[in-house]
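R.M. (postdoc): so does anyone remember the format we settled on? I'll just put the structure tokens first.
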């Protein structure tokens, strides 16, 4: 018998949505020296998701607060916020702006530009299909970011070049 209280899925999102900074989580994973896994988070300042009927993604923007980079190691966090890495004194935000979205088997491939340290490079996000949790829509996305393409080149050979980014974005209807 079919489930009668199934939760709506991403395909049912329509309209404009704001990313709720207080309930959204952006986490990253990086390999150091090839054997050590470094994990951390970056808070979201704000963002917006626009969907045409049928959950067709037509727009996505987000700003993250680079000054609040956190890995659980205060010295590492200070170094990453410094001039050699994120240079948060001059570039306090990371930005993502989508330019297109294409349907794939398990969701959407969203193409756009990620801006880090004032440099914008192409970056894809994979937005997963799936049920929307609870009373607020929750989108789950992931990406692999090449930090050297973003101009973050310090400690080559020590800190991994690729970061895995996982996003759990809670949305609220835009006014």
């Amino acid at each position: 018998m079919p489930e009668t209280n199934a939760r709506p899925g991403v395909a049912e999102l329509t309209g404009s949505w704001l990313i709720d900074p207080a309930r959204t989580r952006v986490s990253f994973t990086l390999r150091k020296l090839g054997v050590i896994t470094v994990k951390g988070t970056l808070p979201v300042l704000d963002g917006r998701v626009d969907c045409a009927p049928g959950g067709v993604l037509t727009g996505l923007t987000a700003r993250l607060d680079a000054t609040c980079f956190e890995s659980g190691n205060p010295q590492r966090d200070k170094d990453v916020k410094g001039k050699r890495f994120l240079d948060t004194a001059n570039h306090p935000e990371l930005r993502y702006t989508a330019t297109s979205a294409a349907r794939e088997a398990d969701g959407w491939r969203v193409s756009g530009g990620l801006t880090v340290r004032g440099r914008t490079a192409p970056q894809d996000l994979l937005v997963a299909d799936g049920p929307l949790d609870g009373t607020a829509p929750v989108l789950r996305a992931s990406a692999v970011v090449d930090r050297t393409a973003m101009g973050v080149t310090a400690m080559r050979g020590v800190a991994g070049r690729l970061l895995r980014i996982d996003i759990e974005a809670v949305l609220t209807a835009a006014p």
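R.M.: ...and that's the designed sequence above, right after the tokens. Also worth knowing: The beta strands are 15-19, 25-32, 36-42, 44-52, 56-65, 93-104, 107-116, 119-128, 138-146, 159-173. The mean pLDDT is 85.
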